[in-house]
Design a protein that fits this description.
It contains 24 helices and 38 strands. Strand 19 and strand 20 form a beta hairpin. By secondary structure, it is an alpha+beta fold. The protein has a 10-stranded antiparallel β-sheet. Strands 29, 30, 31, 32, 33, 34, 35, 36, 37 and 38 form a 10-stranded mixed β-sheet that branches.
Length: 926
Amino acid sequence: MANDKQIKIGQLKNSRRDFIKKSALGLSAFALPTMPVFAGPFTYDENGHLIPEDKKLSKAWIKSLYERGVPDIFTSNNNELKYIGMPVGGIGCGQLYMGGDGKLWLWHIFRTRYNRNPDSELLIRMEQGGHYAYPDKMFDREDRPVIQGAAIKVEQNGKIIIKKISKEGFSDISFRGEYPISKITYKANDLPVEVQLEAFSPFIPGELDKSSNPATILSYKVKNTSSKKVKVNLAGWLENAVCPYTKETSLGNRKATLVKRDNRTTLFYEAEGQAQLSKQDGYGSMSWSLYNTKKTQTAFNVDTKGGMSHIFSALEEKNKNTSYASSLDKVQTNALGKCFKLKPGEEKEVTFVLGWYFPHLNNQPNHKRDLMGVSDIKNLKLHYSTRFTSADDVANYICSNFEELAGGTRLWNKTYYNSTLPYWLLDRSFISINAMATATLQRFSNGRVWGWEGVECCPGTCQHVWQYAQGMARIFPEAERNLREQTDLASGIGFIDNTGEYAYRAENGRHVAHDGHCGTIMRMYREHKLSNNDAFLRTNYAKIKKSVQFIIDEDKDKDGLLEGKQTNTLDAAWYGPMGWISSLYLGALAAGKQMALEMNDTAFASICDGLLEKGRENIVKEVFNGEYFIHKPDYENHPRAINSNDGCHIDQVLGQSFALQLGLPDRVVPQKETKSALASIWKYNFAPDAFAYQKAHKAIKGPRIYAAQGEAATVMCTWPKGGAEKAVPGMEKREENPDHWSGPGIYFDEAMNGFEYQVAVHMIWEGLLEKGLATAKVIHDRYNAVKRNPFNEIECSDHYSRSMASYGVLLAVCGFDFHGPAGYIKFNPQITPENFTAPFTAAEGWGTFIQKRNAGKQTNSINVNYGKLVLSKIEIYSDSTLQKAVSLQLNGENIPVENTGTENQYLLSFKKQAIKARDNLKIVIG
């Protein structure tokens, strides 16, 4: 989250004050006389807890949690396309959206920073999460629209129909978003063809470079739906927007050059002129290509405002020019086209490729908040500059490797959705990883991966935000290992050598945040497990061990709990023992123990184990109130510190949540008390109308809006037994003066996606399946296309990295674990285990897991679709406590196997096998 200096309301200009007052304090935009019905009706007692214990979930809604259902398809008929913006650029290559009607927008590819004024209303709105409450304001971020589009001309029986492929030309448009692929269908009663668009940037799990291209593929399929042949001309155009922010004609010209190769026809855009031109934001190049088509049409400087017929007329003139230049104050738009014929029922595909090359960081430190603060920032560019020299080079790479790149992307899409799991769960688990293809994440030319918390908000790849994220580590393990090695473990950047501390914001925050420190130790173990050997752990073990020793030293009385200053993601230092950060400390001890054992450091493993054992006992004894884990503030020494005291906090057993996702064999917090705590979070924090709770709760003033009127959510902290008035000293002054800084206490009444996901994941792992699914599903419901962009999960700014915790929902329902160096994989399906299919990813490949149960027999299949999977151990479960005969086959050949499982667990050991793409490993039980 933003640090104190960034969001102190008293320091802000009027624009920020006005926005906060309007959107969060007065809540005037959402006046609410009574609590609306989520699945009620509910009774509402302002003197009571304000959140009903009985959620009264409708049977139909509960049923939808488990059912496969149907894909979310947003349509123009239901007014669902307005807010859609799916990222369709490469990882770390800027930010570009595909709109609901197929138009590209939010062209944040020209420079890496957009909000130069730290007091601008736009930046304020982003940092306060205002795009959730006011989604229309999202369009303000389009500071430089680029002219781009496509149109179709159809001739049949002497009749010509021309339509722009957008909402201007088609009234019947449907959008299906399966990140990374946008799938759009266009229909019209007067048109004898149907058009389908697939738009994406190459995205192949495990292949970071192949997924980090400054390019967008737009593939249009045109199908003849009539009984007679048709002639089709498909046109696509793009503005030359190089140096988009200047009109100074003395600096030079924009130039478009036609490039023809065997696999592409390309319009290459650049700017030529004075030396000063190269210093302009957006200096670089663009490319607009038709892939793998020899007979193409080209038109320079087309008139897109004069109607689509002008574009086709220009294309059909057979212009022999090979280049075109125009002054910087002129708009230059050029087009490519392709003619073809279709028989009845026939379909053909025309693919355009957009490329760009703007690798300069454009950081311009006009203000201290503009600084990324990265070491050697002045000498860095974006990483794609190490692979390409121009946008023409980008076009050449994409078109030369098209089958591999597009084929791999489509194979992953097919693999991911070839599942028995609910569509909503698959969608929501994966959508948040699109943050990697937005301005949230940067990948620098020195190889370093770096991130804001959300788009341009809060620098330094903040540990205690990014630690919640699970998606990036599972889909691109190389990227997370990079964060560990080039940031957290890098001396002078994230690692403080003399103490073993992790600097929680690297160069931007050179001190420890205790929650992030503990979580990062746990992530070290995860990155080890998601490797194909032990090189990561062996190379970095000395520093990892020192970081574990640091947090042990913070436990002054060695009782397994932390009691002193504990800096955390809620932007404050808390004092005194609590379930939240002590559970993370115990998780760090459990991870430290496992890493020590794998490095044969039994002495250190014993130290960790001893403290872990004490802590498991003391966390219950000291801070469990019989229902849930509380915080015992140190009022004597820190009477004015923020605290949750007797409150029910969403992260109270976070350490155990992370431990289960990492497959740690040791319990961090005893199961009985953990499940009680999770049930309490459901009981006291899951609000059928979280907005109504915010409005009615008098003790906390000024929460941001992440759940609007009538929307369900899990609130960060509630006080069912009282104590809210003690949580934020000074909060009472805020009613008198809204600009009084009450600190991050405003967070308590908020509902934030990343926190909600982690508790949903934890509930599923602990057997509270329905509660966990419901906790996640309401987030999906809140991001309905009628209300806001389904593909932008907002916390403190857009595309917030913490939301990548959502991938943990998929891991939990699959009961998945993997240990690459040990050659181990585990599945334990929690939904329809009798008929289960789901995707999985591993260190070097990915594929599909299938489980079928029928008439006392169980068959499991592991199919590798890409890369390879090296295994020597598999853990699965049957529906019977009686052990049965088991056999193992690889591509039909029997493999000797030993089972050491107990009851319904099957722990299978066998000689190491390298399972390659298109191989099948089958287990038969019974």
